[in-house]
């Protein structure tokens, strides 16, 4: 009995430690990458980042659809041993070598298809990273399975930082877009070196066709899921690069980085909290309703003002942080801010549907969203980057009611209950947007001055909470009063600690 208790305590400690290091890893990567990107943007043109974005699409596809399909079934198995990890190493290495060769050899053809001759050396240089990712995948799988997230976090922080320093040094010395390629190759190479040193594990070559047959069904599912994730997360960048070329892709990449930073930090964190809550409460409809409304409310109340701030302050933010040459990206930031706000709700809805066992609907909705975005883009790309950005936004907005209706029916929620959760943050954001618009009109001559942003942030910190409090004060919902949700952070924290 005592041994079981001790084992449970150890498992709880490992989960807590692993979660902490995993969150730190994600947060550090986001912050460091954004800082490095902001510095490099001062020295490089949008075209350079657009070319790198196209090359990254090939790497992300390889990782999500191919390497993960080999490694994830082993990570999920009950008792993986060194033979299985060596098998992952063998097949990921061989596959990585093949993919790197294909990427290098097809660079000329791909650059012709994208009508960008300067893409060829970028693809050839980045093919080295594909091979590195194949080599490192087995080590990552082994560390993840053993809950060694501290080692992974240290690896990520050091490799991103050192790679960024090298990239910045090369950009300052006039190496241009290839400084980004060298940065990425060095970062991936350092990540491989560090994880090998941390693992203290030497793999061997294992070619076993029986293991392929054993894991084939699981690998196929992982590959399909990875393909859907890749398309949903990167399909917009791919469409922009195909229709508008590297310069527009670079501008779009900056706008997407700005807005998605809010989404990744706030919405993704809330989704991680939501999944276990939804799973545990699915047998109690009332508890599930209240949990959903609270998480929805918190997601919106945190994300809406930040995205609203970015949308209205896009021009001064871009000038101060990235430089005037990136100003054409400002309208795209405003469009993507709306997209990210809608996406945060739709993704939460999908988490809920997955948690209660309705897995098909989110997949069908994701495919429909992608098809609609591609169709609208093919029509409106003639209006430039803003036209394509609004096409992506329209696809999310048009399909949002379908997602919300599905969730309301699954939970037995009435429309007005959901509106109650939406009202305070959305009303507060509208008033905030109007207030910031007036503020910018009054001091429009100081667009490139940091004090403008500081003043706007001070105004937002006063205006938004006041409007949320006024709106939320009169709203009541079934199973609890929403003023408790909006006005009592202590009760919120207790809800999530339970």
UniProtKB/TrEMBL annotation:
Name of the protein: O-antigen/teichoic acid export membrane protein
InterPro entries found in the cross-reference section: Poly_Biosynth_Transport (IPR050833)
Keywords: Cell membrane, Membrane, Transmembrane, Transmembrane helix
Transmembrane segments: 51-72, 84-110, 122-140, 152-172, 178-197, 292-314, 326-348, 360-381, 387-407, 419-440, 452-475
Coiled coil stretches, renumbered: none
CDD domains to which the protein is assigned, alphabetical: MATE_tuaB_like (cd13127)
Localization, UniProt: Cell membrane
Top-level taxon of origin: Bacteria
Family of this protein: Belongs to the polysaccharide synthase family.
Organism for this UniProt entry: Glaciimonas immobilis
Membrane topology: Multi-pass membrane protein
GO cellular component term, pick one: plasma membrane
């Amino acid at each position: 009995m005592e041994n079981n208790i001790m084992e449970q305590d150890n498992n709880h400690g490992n989960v807590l430690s692993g979660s902490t290091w995993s969150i730190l890893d994600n947060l550090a990567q986001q912050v460091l990458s954004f800082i490095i990107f902001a510095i490099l943007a001062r020295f490089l043109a949008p075209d350079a980042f657009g070319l790198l974005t196209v090359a990254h699409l090939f790497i992300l596809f390889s990782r999500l659809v191919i390497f993960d399909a080999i490694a994830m079934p082993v990570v999920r198995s009950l008792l993986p041993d060194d033979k299985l990890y060596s098998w992952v190493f063998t097949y990921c290495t061989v596959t990585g070598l093949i993919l790197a060769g294909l990427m290098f050899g097809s660079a000329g053809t791909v650059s012709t298809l994208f009508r960008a001759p300067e893409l060829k050396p970028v693809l050839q240089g980045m093919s080295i990273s594909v091979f590195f990712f194949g080599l490192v995948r087995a080590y990552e799988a082994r560390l993840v399975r053993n809950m060694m997230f501290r080692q992974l976090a240290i690896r990520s922080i050091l490799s991103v930082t050192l790679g960024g320093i090298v990239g910045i040094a090369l950009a300052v010395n006039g190496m241009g877009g290839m400084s980004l390629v060298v940065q990425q190759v060095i970062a991936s190479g350092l990540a491989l070196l560090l994880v090998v040193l941390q693992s203290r594990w030497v793999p061997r070559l294992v070619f076993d066709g029986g293991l392929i047959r054993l894991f084939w069904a699981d690998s196929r599912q992982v590959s399909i899921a990875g393909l859907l994730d890749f398309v949903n997360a990167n399909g917009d960048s791919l469409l922009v690069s195909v229709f508008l070329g590297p310069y527009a892709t670079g501008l779009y990449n900056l706008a997407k980085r700005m807005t998605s930073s809010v989404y990744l930090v706030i919405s993704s964190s809330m989704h991680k909290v939501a999944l276990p809550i939804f799973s545990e409460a699915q047998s109690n409809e009332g508890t599930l309703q209240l949990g959903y409304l609270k998480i929805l409310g918190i997601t919106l109340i945190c994300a809406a003002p930040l995205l609203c701030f970015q949308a209205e302050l896009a021009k001064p933010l871009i000038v101060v942080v990235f430089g005037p040459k990136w100003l054409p990206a400002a309208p795209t930031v405003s469009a993507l801010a709306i997209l990210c706000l809608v996406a945060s709700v739709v993704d939460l809805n999908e988490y809920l549907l997955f948690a209660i066992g309705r897995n098909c609907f989110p997949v069908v909705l994701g495919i429909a969203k992608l098809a609609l975005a591609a169709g609208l883009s093919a029509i409106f790309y003639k209006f430039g980057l803003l036209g394509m950005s609004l096409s992506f936004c329209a696809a999310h907005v048009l399909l949002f009611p379908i997602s919300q209706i599905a969730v309301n029916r699954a939970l037995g929620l009435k429309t007005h209950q959901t509106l109650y959760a939406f009202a305070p943050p959305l009303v507060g954001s509208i008033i905030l947007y109007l207030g910031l618009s007036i503020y910018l009109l009054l001091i429009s001559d100081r667009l490139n001055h940091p004090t403008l942003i500081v003043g706007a942030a001070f105004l937002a910190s006063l205006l938004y909470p006041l409007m949320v409090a006024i709106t939320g004060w009169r709203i009541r919902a079934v199973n609890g009063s929403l003023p408790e949700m909006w006005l009592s952070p202590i009760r919120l924290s207790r809800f999530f600690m339970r």
